[in-house]
Request: fold
Amino acid sequence: TAGATASLNFTGTGITVYGAKASWHGHSRVEIDGQKVTDIDQYNQTRQDQVAIFTIKGLKNGNHTITLQNMDSKNPNSSNIITTIDKVVIIDTPSSEIVVDQPTQEESTPVPTNKAPVGPNIIKSASLKYNAWGGGCKPATNCVINIQWDNATDDSGRISHYDIYNGSTKINTQPLKQPKFTHTGIRAGQTYSYRVFAYDEQGLASGGSAILSKTVSCTPFLWTAYCTL
Reply:
């Protein structure tokens, strides 16, 4: 996130920082012992993991602190400002001078581009759970709609979460880890159009499921009423 920092105390004469580069990554600033050293651009057209994004060597052998800060800025071609750190390697060999190295994109070994998730393909069911209520039919109801869908897939093998929309409005307040959702606040006489999107751990979204539309009706029964789809 913008302005986020990560700091590490280490003992040695240098350090190499490894991170990811991708088309949605931004800029980070590197400080050693409280002094700015350089800025790093973690943008790359294709995703690369475990890339040496920064190296410094030739420091006085002893205790040092490295800090990386998200600069809330990005390459004009990037779609986001995300910055990441995968690991660090401490250097303990002496050197006659301080050397700062940022490998170019050509020096890095690319890995296959991350692809957006696929699916879910269908919403398998949207069923009512209803409780009869007094007062006859009226727009507000005690009903909820239980929605389930098939699992999405991703080239990484991992789906981070799902979001579900009614029309253009997202109706889940928290990321959905399971392929199901209960929609509350159902009103009689209204049509609900559901669509589900899957997200991978890099934040890429699927194209979404087919839209499933349901219209809720209210049926009176004696002094009560209940919902039907």
Observations:
- The chain has no helices and 16 strands.
- Confidence is low (pLDDT under 50) at residues 105-112.
